[in-house]
Amino acid sequence: MIDHHSPFKINCLSACNNSKYYLNDSLPKYSVDTVVIPFEYKQSALFQPFTFKAIDSVIGILLERDDVLLSINGYAHVDEAGDSICYYLSLNRALVIKDYVLGRGVDSMRITSLKGWGNVRSRNRKTNADILRYNCRAEIMLSYPLPPPPQAVNDRDEDGVADEVDECPDEYGEILKYGCPDKSAIIVPFEPEQFSLFSVSYAVLDSVKAILLRDPAVSITISGYAYKTEGVDAVCKKLAIERADIVRRYLLSRGIDAERILSSKGLGKSKSINAGRNPLEIIRNARAEISLIRR
After folding, report:
1. Of 17, 22, 26, 19, nearest to 4 (Cα)?
2. pTM of the model
3. Does one domain contain both 135 and 254?
């Protein structure tokens, strides 16, 4: 495979002014990588082990994937000879690459074009700092077919479950619950980017405390969550852990036996309870969840 740090590979960002471009406007479309094969001044014969290594890396791709196509362009420097000789020199550089590739078992039908550009480029790029290396070369352009665009999926509630298999198509739900929400969980709200309790949090926790004191057979699990807009993964993970922990500590401070809290964990931004389509929905995702479990 091609070494992406190799000096022989041109990133399409610099070669084409785009990381991907299309060969035509009809399918299939391709992304293109360019591999540079250097030649000695006024020579069209292959040389140096690293030159063969660069070509062999291309051949490795072509033999492994039969859907990759290639084109070959040869170039010459304006000082190598007159216009006509430079043209044939550039063409010979492209042809020697073609012969080597075919000799290694690549089907000739996969070569979409082969062209010698003479000294045209060097005339237009005389200011290049490394002008000889820039023009005494051939370039192999590998065309990779892009995957087909994803099919449009109807998902009214935007929960990531297609309507055709969503058992609750108008309610934001969970994939593991076939698109339905977990309505059994008790939501403990938090202010965005905070893990301290406030008035509404206390009211919810006090109601949970009352249930636990009234029914000794009920235990709980606590899960803390954060929303993606509250920070990067590490921040959201820490925030979620702190939210779960302060809920646990509050209930312990109100006389709930530690054995009745079966687990307390922070799950970061792994699960939302809505699509976050407006500020109110976003705020509702800053939360902890308490699940009641009857033993």
Report:
1. 19
2. 0.51
3. no
